[in-house]
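Ticket closed. Logging final result for HD domain-containing protein.
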Amino acid sequence: MRNVTLLEIFTHPIAQKYLTRSGVAHAISVAYHALRLSKQFNVNPDLATKAALLHDIGHYEWYTDGQWDYEKYKKNDIHAIKGAERAHKLLIRLGENPQHAKEIALAILLHTDSYLPEGELQKRPLQTVVRLADEADEEPGGNHHYRHIDHHQAIKQIKRLDEKVEKTLKVTHFKRLG
Ligand SMILES: [Fe+2]
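Final structure:
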């Protein structure tokens, strides 16, 4: 049973505000990759798709004189930290199971290590799935953030993904959360 659907998350004004900033097309595409990978890694597709949809919700726009400044971004970015917190707040507000909200937030926190000190983290499968899903949709120069998708098309794809997740949950029982 799911307390919250992807559609409820996606259509919330907070998600709309920040996902349009980091790219709706990218977020949806990563969520579809996460569904595929969740089967491969045997993780709960509900958590994987939610974390994937929201993984870049913490993005900030780094500009110098009106131009995107990649160097500044690389040096100063903490979008994974901000995103984890923002996603958690949104999920709890929508009535998400608090344990699920925590696992989703953790997967968002660890979807990139660009801001972390060097060294290997032992990631759990859900965290790995979200990271791989993001990488699967990456384009050179960050172009994946600028791909466009029509709002109605986006809604259609989110609804279809909700159906796919529910179908998988009906036939599989997931013991592990993360
Ligand atoms: Fe991303």
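The pocket of fe (ii) ion is lined by residues 26, 30, 55-56, 134 (CB under 6 Å). No further action required.
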